[in-house]
Amino acid sequence: MPDIPRRFSCEKGQKCVQLETAVGMWRLLFADRGWPLLDDWCDFIETEHKRAISRDTWVQLLDFSKVRIVSVLTSSVLNPLLASSLRP
Fold it and tell me: Which of 11, 16, 46, 79 satisfies CB 3.0 to 4.6 Å to 52 for a cystine?
């Protein structure tokens, strides 16, 4: 997903996307992708972050949403004992 939705969502002269706009855009953009952490992320942003979303946060979320969490946590790069304790 390119940076175009973020730039479109910014108010004129602003670099950040307003919180409510960002959450709405994420819900729209991720609707067909089925990202399982979307609701948790939006809840966190609305209850803890409570401020506009920077370009860095926007781009990092897009990158993070592409990562397969289980495969990263249980990779052979980790200590095997640690990896085995993280498996579901």
Answer: 16
Question: 76-87: per-residue pLDDT in tens?
Answer: 555 555 555 555
- From residue 57, alpha-carbon distances to 15, 62, 65, 71, 82 in Å are 12, 9, 12, 23, 29
Q: Model-level pTM? A: 0.65
> Look-up: residue for tokens 């175009």?
4
| CATH code of the region 4-86 | 1.10.238.200
**Which residue type is seen at 43?**
D
Give the separation between CA 84 and CA 54, rounded to whole angstroms.
36
Task: Report the sign of the C-alpha dihedral through residues 63, 31, 11, 40, in that order.
Answer: negative
Q: Answer for the pair 40, 14: CB distance below 8 angstroms, yes or no.
A: no
What count of residues does the chain have? 88
Q: What is the DSSP letter of 17?
A: B
